[in-house]
């Protein structure tokens, strides 16, 4: 992760709200008016535009679906939670564009959407002026090889998970790092997480927290049969290969940031490496990563 400041050349800002987040509706019109007053064009995601209409939006902004929006703007503002931001981050990764995200949380502080509503306009001011603190977060690119051909890539910010079906038995996975075989693990699945994703599913599965600045990946078995199968931290440049060893009754799935996924077939191999482009994440200047950890994980509370 590198830290820099945002480019001041912002002329179009994409606005995306969590689906059906009624509490965000009145703020959408305010944000659009605020941007227009500064000669910045607001651009709404399709469902967000419908939500804004309920608050009598005073302008008629351009509207795009979320996959097209990321290629049409210079900055994306997300109002909601970490899941909404993840969805947009994955769209940015898939489009291979260099668009920063500003995440504004409605409710409790998020690991990714850690700008609070009162901090929204100061954060936007800093972004437009090129003073915002920007962290470049490592992303993953995953490819499934099936019968010698590659399925479409998926780019993710948090993790790639190979897992069993809800009611099936444990699965076996052959795991390699680079050209070296590492282990054959029997478990409910395996998480391959970025440092950003280390505080998501990886954390719930007993994996370590990895500071976002680390150039590392985490391989965490999910409920392994052998307690000696422990999480492993590896260099981020090391590609990972996961080959499910499947019997006739096994059902194995691969999921991407919990947003998308599909069932694997016998013989499929999932290959995971760092994506060539990193995500630019705008942060509040008033809060450090460890402050976010303390608040989210309730450290130092009795």
Q: Largest sheet, described in full?
A: 9 strands, mixed
- The tally of domains stands at 2
Mean pLDDT: 91
What is the CA-CA span between the terminal residues?
33 Å
- Structural class designation: alpha+beta
Proportion of residues in helical segments: 10-25%
User: Which of globular, elongated, flat, extended, rod-shaped describes the shape?
Assistant: elongated
What Rg is obtained from the alpha carbons, in whole angstroms?
20 Å
The CATH homologous superfamily name of the largest domain equals Probable inorganic polyphosphate/atp-NAD kinase, domain 1
State the total count of DSSP E strands. 22
Residue fraction in strands:
35-45%
Write the CATH architecture name of the largest domain: 3-Layer(aba) Sandwich
Which residues sit in consecutive blocks of at least 5 with pLDDT less than 50?
A: none
Oligomer state of the chains in this structure: single chain
How many DSSP helices?
A: 7
Walk me through what this model shows.
With 302 residues, the chain is of the alpha+beta class. It folds into two domains: 3-138 and 278-297, Rossmann fold; 140-274, Probable inorganic polyphosphate/atp-NAD kinase, domain 2 (Tumour Suppressor Smad4, Sandwich), CATH 2.60.200.30. It is built from seven helices and 22 strands. The strands form three sheets. Strands 1, 2, 3, 4, 5, 6, 7, 8 and 22 form a nine-stranded mixed sheet that branches. Helix 1 crosses helix 2 (46-53). The longest helix is centred in the first third of the chain and has 14 residues, at 82-95.
Protein traits:
single chain; 302 residues; alpha+beta; Rossmann fold; Tumour Suppressor Smad4; 2 domains; 9-stranded mixed β-sheet; 7-stranded antiparallel β-sheet; 7 helices; 22 strands; elongated
